[in-house]
Each structure stands twice: as C-alpha cells, then as structure tokens.
Amino acid sequence: MPEIHAARGAERTAKSWGAEAAKRMLMNNLDPEVAEHPEDLVVYGGTGRAARSWEAYDAIVRTLDELEPDETLLVQSGKPVGVFRTHEWAPRVLIANSNLVGDWATWPEFRRLEALGLTMYGQMTAGSWIYIGTQGILQGTYETFAAVARSLGRESLAGTLTLTAGAGGMGGAQPLAVTMNDGVVLIVDVDQTRLARRVEHGYLDEYTADLDAAVARVLAAKDAGEALSVGVVGNAAEVFPELLRRGVPIDIVTDQTSAHDPLAYLPIGVPVEQWKAEADRDPEDFTRRSRTSMTEHVAAMVGFQDAGAAVFDYGNSIRREAELGGFERAFEFPGFVPAYIRPQFEEGRGPFRWVALSGDPEDIYKTDRAIAELFPEDAALHRWLEQAGEKVHFEGLPARICWLGYKERHLAGLKFNEMVASGELKAPVVIGRDHLDSGSVASPYRETEAMKDGSDAIADWPLLNALLNTASGASWVSLHHGGGVGIGRSIHAGQVCVADGTALAAEKLERVLTNDPGTGVMRHVDAGYEHARDIARERGLKVPML
Ligand code: NAD
Q1: Phi and psi at residue 180, in whole multiples of 5°?
Q2: Residue 379: band (very low, low, confident or very high) from pLDDT cuts 50, 70, 90
Q3: Is 68 within a domain?
C-alpha cells in the first residue's frame, strides 16, 4: 500500500466541502506521521482503525468523491454500506462503529465477528476520522497534571517525579504534559520504536534501556527542580514493582498502556517481536497472561499509593483488567475523571479541536491568535496556546486543540468561518472533538465513573448527543461502542463540522457547536451537579425539569 497523505489547499475533488473534508480527514488519520500502524489501518489506541479493509477504504474514498451535496453515506464499522438522498443540512456521513447487542458485547465475541470480516474496532477518533495525532490528547493530559499539582498543594510539578507507562498514540503525550508543568517523568514502554518516535516528535527528551541510568537521570533532575522526561524500555509489570521495591521517591503514578484490550498489553516474558504471533495463536491464554501481568502492575500502583504517592487510572481500564486477573484491591485508586476533570465537564468543557485543510501551519497560528482574542480573560487558555505554539510538532494536517465549553465553542466556529470567508485562512477548517467529552459518552470506568446520581452506565446520553448533532447540521456524526476502555464498557458519539466560509456553514456551526456541549451541561444537570445547574441558568440552557 502506498503512503497516504490528505490533499491540501482550497481546490476540492468532492462535490461539497463536507464530503471533501471527511475524505481528507480519513486520509489524514492514515498518514504515517499520524497513525501508529498505518499499514494495518491502525490509527491509535491498541487496534483503533480508520476503515475495515483496504477495499473498504478505497470504496469510501470513491463514494465521497461522487457524493452529491444532498446525499448521505452510511458507514458500518469501517465499511461503506449505503448512500441515501437526504438534504443539505444533513450530515454527509453517518458512522456506526463496533456496536454489539449487550449480551454479546465481549472481546472474544467481537474478535470472532471481526475475524469474519463483519466489524472493526473504531476506538474513539480512529473510526470517526478526527484523530489529530498525539496533540489531540496533549492539552487534556496537561490540564490533568496541572490539577494533580494543585491537589498536592503545589503551583506546578517542579520538584516532583511522575512514573507512568505507555508511550503510544495517546500515552505519548504524557511526558510532554508533565514537563510543560515543570515536572520530571519516567515513562516505561516495551516497544523501543514508540519511545524513539516520541523523541523524534519532541514529546520525550530522551530514552534508554538501562533502568539504573534512567533512575539516576530523573532523580538528579527532581533534586535540581528541572523539567525532564526520560523513557525506559521495559515491561511496566516488571519495572513498576522493581521501582517500588527499590523505594525510588516517586510522587505521582499513572499508566496509559493499552490495557483496555488484553491483546494490546504485553505480558511479562513475551518478547515484543513475538507479540502478535502469540496473541493470534491463543487469544484466550494471552488474555489470561496479560491480566496476570496487569495484577503485578496494578499491585505496584496500589503499593505506591500506600507509600504516599498520588495514584490514578488514566482511562485505560487497567483496574478492571487487574480485578479480572484476581487482584482485589485494584479499585483502591480513583479514575482521573472523578479525581480531576469532572468540574470541567459540568461546564460542557472538553477537547475542542480543529484542522487546517490548507495544510499551512500559518492558518493554525492565525486561529490561535483568534482564540486568544475571543477569550481574553482565560489565563490558562493563553498559557496553553503559547506553549502549544512553541512545543507542538504538527503531525499530518496542521491542527490545534483547546478545551472550550458551552456558549464558547460556537464563537470559535463562527470566527473561523469568517476567516475562511474573508480569505484570511487559505482553505476551509474542520472542527470536531474527541468522543471523550462532557455529554457524548457513557463509560463507567472513565468519563462517567462515580456520577453523583449513580447513572454511570446509562447510555441514553451519547445516543441523544448523536441524534441532536445530526439534527443540528454536523458534517459527519459517529456512534461507537468500546472506545477508550474496551468492548462492553462504553458507548460514545462524535461530531465534526466544516467551516467553509459560507452563510449556510455559519448557521450549522452556530447550532452544532452550541448544542453539542449543551448536552454535556444537560447531562450533569440531570445527575444533580450544582455547578452544572448554575451554568445552565447563567447561560440560558433550557432544561424542562430544572
Ligand atoms: P497505543 O496502542 O498507541 O499505545 C500503547 C502503548 O503501550 C504501546 O506503545 C505499547 O508498546 C505499550 N505497552 C503495552 N503493554 C505494555 C507493557 N506491559 N509495559 C509497557 N508498555 C506496554 O495506545 P494509546 O493510543 O497510547 O492509548 C493508551 C491507552 O489509553 C488506551 O487504553 C486508550 O484507550 C487509553 N486512552 C486514554 C485517554 C485519556 O484521556 N486518558 C485518551 C485516549 C486513550
């Protein structure tokens, strides 16, 4: 398969910008700078794919080029299955990925169906074509570590040492997020190529296979109060217990290996080169071995907590996997959403992101300045935009992320649309978000862990979110199962809009980018969060029973 790169610039081959943008974003997800394993259509997050097969990929691209501006393409788990006449306000693409009926929603059944060629794992933004590389999670990770510092009574992470694992597509944001907060971090990954890639992209300062050398480097930096990130090649299930045994003074511990999928977590004793062959040979046995290793890994995390460290699950379901492996204390440390992020969700805040279809980084720098001018009071946002401008290496089409909330996002969308219309930006801009957002996900081990009213597993909310975004004029809308935490554990929705500079786009953007975060405020009002109620009242959200 030749390398895939999305087209750049203001000329399109599709018949509408909605279809052109979907095509470019599908291609961008598979750009070798963006995807972790593009040859297998794998974008990130274990086996999160952009299309079911190369034949399906070709058919999607061809169909998007032929799609009329009043037609909608339906994609079923990465395969284009139908084109229907709708209308101009309707999404150009509707996507459903990895959905299974409740009793069948297990990894073994999913894999059986996948092997029959009937489904694919879409993760969150892989199968919904709005992954923007490691930057996509960087601000969220940066904000989480800033909140950890505050919870420790510190202004920053200066003088602290964080231990984590998993330097993949999303986990690779952790080292830069810690150093942007002035801290020191040791990150463990079994795969040396992942650490090398993070160094190449400026997310990690250095890496080594020598644990003693890595520990000496991070302790010296911690003592000197200097920011530093060091990767170490090794299995977290061995390295974490070893560091605990040595009594290394670690202040914060988390993990972002792909624990949500036991076949994407490497058990102790399996060489990286034999990973895939071993997992394919006997998936059930591999799952058992990975869960056994995860019990060692999580037991060490609990051990660090017992020793006084701040420990949290970073959204990969490792506690549940360790529990399934037989470790009873797995849930003794919290997930990051209830611990640090929920107050943002109450305001409808979440990872708003946009991509310059021109391919010109200058377009992103112009939008950065526009956002800073739109929100002059938000000091944290200004600090983020400054640091991102300096430190973020663009992967694929230039993109930016920043967390914005209800009655904020549409202002940004309308401004970008004006900038496209006036020619200030060289081509249209794609505006979307992660599925990890305030109103678009039901995921009891992550986004909806420990909801105030106990509604963690109620999955009506992401369905309503997807339906509302479809009714409001989004360019493509997706509804997935199993992202982040694995099959059987989450239902979530995504939307993407296109600012092409037209008056019609402005009308759609205004509605979608108001309504979409509005569902996050609504969800938290319904669950009884006072701050969400205040936001709804202040910002005029209509909630019939409030
Ligand atoms: P990825 O598959 O790209 O990377 C996972 C990394 O873990 C790989 O580099 C792999 O080599 C490494 N790894 C696997 N087993 C290991 C072991 N035993 N010891 C050390 N390293 C090991 O996945 P990703 O996109 O980085 O996502 C990581 C996890 O985080 C997933 O479970 C994902 O669902 C979750 N996630 C969390 C958030 C969040 O906001 N917290 C967001 C997205 C994804």
Answers
A1: -65, -25
A2: confident
A3: no
What's the ipTM? 0.98
Domain that holds residue 210: 135-334
For 307-445, where are the alpha helices, taking DSSP H only? 318-324, 336, 342-346, 361-374, 379-391, 409-421
Q: What is the pLDDT of residue 383?
A: 84
Q: Whose CA is nearest to atom 13 of ligand 1?
A: 257
Instruction: Provide the pLDDT for residue 2.
Output: 81
Torsions phi, psi for 498 (to 5 deg): -125, 130
Over residues 394-405, the pLDDT tens digits come to 999 999 999 999
Nearest CA to ligand 1 atom 20: 189
Q: Is the CB of 432 under 6 A from ligand 1?
A: no
Atom of ligand 1 nearest to the CA of 191: 11
Mutate to test the pocket of ligand 1, among 128, 144, 189 (most ligand atoms within 8 A of CB): 189
Band of pLDDT at residue 34, cut at 50, 70 and 90: very high
Asked if residue 164 belongs to a known ligand binding site, the reply is: no
Given a contact cutoff of 8 angstroms between Cβ atoms, the answer to whether 487 and 407 are in contact is no
What is the Cα–Cα distance from 285 to 463, expressed in whole angstroms? 35
Is 445 marked as binding a ligand?
A: no
For the Cβ of 165 lying below 6 angstroms from any atom of ligand 1, the answer is yes
Tally of CB atoms within 10 A around 253: 25
> Is residue 142 one of the residues assigned to a domain?
yes
CB-ligand 1 contact for 256 (6 Å cutoff): yes
Residues 70-99, mean pLDDT to the nearest whole number: 98
260 is in an annotated binding site: yes
Of the residues 132, 161, 230, 402, which is catalytic? 402
Is 305 assigned a ligand-binding role in the annotation? Answer: no
Domain count, the chain: 1
Instruction: Please give the distance, rounded to the nearest whole angstrom, from the Cα atom of residue 256 to the centre of ligand 1.
Output: 4
User: Do the domain assignments include residue 358?
Assistant: no
Report, as an integer, the average pLDDT of 300-319. 97
Residue 241 sits in a domain whose CATH number is 3.40.50.10730
Mean pLDDT score, 444-457 = 97
Residue 4 has pLDDT above 80, yes or no: yes
Identify the CA nearest to 512 among candidates 541, 456, 471: 471
Does residue 202 belong to any structural domain of this protein?
yes
Rounded mean pLDDT, 288-300: 98
Our answer on whether the CB atom of 236 is closer than 6 Å to any ligand 1 atom is yes
Q: Which atom of ligand 1 is nearest to the CA of 261?
A: 32
CA–centroid distance, 235 to ligand 1, in Å, is: 13
pLDDT at residue number 193: 97
140: left (phi over 0), alpha (psi -120 to 50) or beta: alpha
The whole-model pTM stands at: 0.93
Q: Is 402 a catalytic residue?
A: yes
Residues whose CB falls within 8 Å of the CB of residue 298, separated by 6 or more in sequence, listed in order = 318, 319, 322, 327, 330
> What is the predicted pLDDT for the residue at 1?
72
Contact 93, 122 (CB under 8 A): no
Check: CB of residue 136 under 8 Å from CB of residue 401: yes
